[in-house]
Fold these 2 entries.
Entry 1:
Amino acid sequence: IGEGEGEDKCSYIQIINGGKKFITCNIKGYLASRIAFFLLNIRISSHNIIFTRHGESEYNVEDRIGGDSSLSNHGKQYATILSQYLSNEFDQTYINLWSSDMKRTRETVKTYLDSNDENHLKYINYTEHKELSEIHVGICEGMTYNEVKEQYPQEYQARSIDKLRYRYPQGESYLDMIKRLEPIIFELERTDKPVVLVAHRAVLRCLISYFLDLPAEEIPYLDIPLHTVLKLTPASYYNKLEKIKLM
Ligand code: F6P
């Protein structure tokens, strides 16, 4: 489409020189404007994203969901091993380090930050993001899955039938989370540095599924083990995901 061409015939979005120039023509309505906004925010990048869950938490040990518990001893061990891994991976490289604002992710990240001297800390840009909090489980806060099954059998059943759309009473669904993670996805698309993102099981399911282009129905079942680094390497038409078990 040449300059000025097609104005009276069609609607289009033209991205020139890998995003240096952006032309929209006859873009009207919600969906088309969302697509334009999305395209404005993505770029072809070559940096890695390292995803990991926090180290094992006290609630993980008891198989409880929700809450804001601290790391278990095992989880603290992972935080140390992870910081060694990150120091080897990013020696004198500027990185963005993101975590949720929950205790278990903060504690995991703190071990890494504390292991760096001032000389190295200048390479790490650390920010906390409220959007990266784990799925809110509402009335099931602090329960085990068995307790949910006993005390709220209908809720348990409804979730097993449609885990993607099921919303915990006074809590969230996976679809709610996907919405709240949109700004994070834009930031991940936009940033020009490697990112290390320390978050939670359900959150990482949503983010990684986006980058692997997985069908929505598969999102709530993606395997995101504890004590494992998930390294995403972008390419033009697909992203590669490596699972590196550290413990
Ligand atoms: O058990 C750990 C945890 O992060 C919980 O806090 C959260 O509710 C759950 O995993 C999410 O996984 P699922 O959607 O499979 O219940």
Entry 2:
Amino acid sequence: MKNSVLNSPYKVGDITLRNRIVMAPLTRGRADNDENVATKLIAEYYRQRATAGLIISEGSQISPMGVGYVNTPGIYSKEQTHAWKQVTEAVHEEGGKIFIQLWHVGRLSHPYFLNGKLPLAPSAINPHHSIRTPEGNKMSVLPKEMSVREIKEVVREFGLAASNAIEAGFDGVEIHSSNGYLLHQFFAPCSNFRTDEYGGTMKNRTRIMFEVLDQMKMYIPENRIGLRLNPSSHDYHGLTIDKETLPTFDYMIERLNDYDLAYLHLSEPFTDVSNVAFAEPNIAIRYRKIYNGTLMINKGFTVETGNQIIEDGIADLVAFGVPFIANPDLVYRMKTGATLSLPDKSTYYTTGSKGYTDYAELD
Ligand code: PHB
């Protein structure tokens, strides 16, 4: 891959990435148990992977109500903001770049994580999804329909989290507006029955996301904000595709041209949509035609298919998730054609260094 396009530099806003291989956000559950802060171990993990052109951190909750998994880090408190500094410093020492993914899981939480409170959602509709807790899997509950005041509060929390991210030394932020989490729950008619200005029309269902963007712009330049969308996964994290889905994403992505974002991060379908009515199996191809800015694509790419999609002009950056788990030196392996190590799934969400920072490096 020595002279391949994946291995060529790329400018995102005013930041030059040394290659187009992005480490995709991966939940790994190694944050400190009590305060949800990043640890020395987490800093080491990202340091090992800093040869990526860009690292996007694991999803990090913007509010105590945004958490839905065990030991995920937050970015809403002073302690959390401070703790992230060891991570950004480690990555920068290695010459890498790192954005933090800002996350609110909405109805995909459980009272277990919320001191007994009900998860927040656009409407009181149970996703009927299994939630991983330290006490084992629990079924999701009927969430609380958010008041307009609560929606405004979440918008404010996204802004504050972006401000904290800058203080913590991140190069930028990625808004997690996909995969069935809170913002995506607003976009989808199956999880949003609201009749006020946040429900009904495409404009109303996507309103919260533009409010989040506009709020963040008060704290961070637009070209330091990335946005992640997953337009075409069916029966994934409690959301389904219907005839509104693609027109809604088309509308939203067209409007994103009014912003000078760092990038738009799209996922190809996470689930088989070959027989799903209204689903689009080729997300990058569809949205390359609609979106004028930097397009990052993810899901199941290899060095060959990643190079191909960039050479074909369909994407600018390729995000790799699972391959980065067992290959901290993934960039080196892709450059040299070395065999990739396979990850141990049983340690994806456990504690400690096993299956986290103990994968071998070849370079
Ligand atoms: C997961 O931990 O399973 C997970 C987290 C965030 C995502 C998708 C999956 O966006």
